[in-house]
Amino acid sequence: MIQRELPIKIVFTDAVTRPRKSNQHIKRVRVAGSEDSFPEELRLEADEIADGGTLTIEDLSLPGDLEVVDRRDRDPIITVEMPKKDKRPRHDHRDHDDDDD
Question: How many domains does the chain have?
């Protein structure tokens, strides 16, 4: 078994709207496996958190016989903020005509 550090690519499919704000905390992770089983990068599909949430190392699906040897199991890989509600004040639609004099 050998160890390598692989980049993590966050992927949102066309089924969801890509969030405006997301923060990728962990960009690379150390994995162990046989030499012929290493991909170029690890892909993490993040559709389930498109509206807000967090994915961790435990959410990575690893191909073949790879296993994570990093000690950051519960650390977030990506965080997507919940969409904020507009804080603009509502305008009353009162009629302000003063021409009735």
Answer: 1
Task: Decide if 86 is inside a domain.
Answer: no
Q: Tokens at residue 52, please?
A: 């807000």
- Tokens for 1, please give them: 């078994």
Q: How far apart are CA 99 and CA 53, in angstroms?
A: 54
Q: Distances in Å between the alpha carbon of 73 and those of 11, 13, 22, 36, 93?
A: 20, 25, 20, 25, 54
Q: Domain of 29?
A: 2-80
**Tens-digit pLDDT string for the chain (101 aa):** 899 999 999 999 999 988 888 999 999 999 999 877 788 999 999 999 999 999 998 898 888 888 989 877 778 999 998 877 666 666 655 555 555 55
